[in-house]
Amino acid sequence: MKVVAVQAPWVIPAVIAFSVVFYGLLGCVILQGYRWLKRKAQTTQEAALEGLKIHDDPAPGLVEVVFHTYYGFIAFTHETKHEFWATPDDAREALRRLHRFNLVWGMFAHGAVLIPLVSYGNFLA
Q: Among the four 18, 67, 114, 118, which has the fewest Cβ within 10 Å?
């Protein structure tokens, strides 16, 4: 005697519908988390430069600052290039703050092992 399993006709469509809804909601949650992380990181980068006299164009007594910041979460990393002119004291302070940003925010990003080394190299340069 052969035993044959019989499924209800609604099982397969219900599983497909559940999967579509589940992965759709998961995608929405991931997208909202990415947008929140991006807003928070940009706000923190702007706060790192608050109170410093930063100029877009060169002038006597100013030094050029070029620095890259990194943030992300596991599967992605976002790099921002900061290019500006500042007095030597403000430039040192800006570099210190941006390097600290990298140490805090870069630790969750893809390539977290290398970000502190690259950031410190940029800081010294």
A: 18
State the pLDDT confidence band at 27, using cuts at 50, 70 and 90: very high
pTM over 0.85: no
The residues near 109 (Cβ < 8 Å, ≥ 6 apart) are: 70, 71, 72, 73, 74, 76, 77, 78, 115
Separation of alpha carbons 43 and 9, rounded Å: 53
Cβ atoms within 10 Å of 42's Cβ, excluding its own: 13
User: Which positions ≥6 away from 34 have C-beta within 8 Å?
Assistant: 73, 76
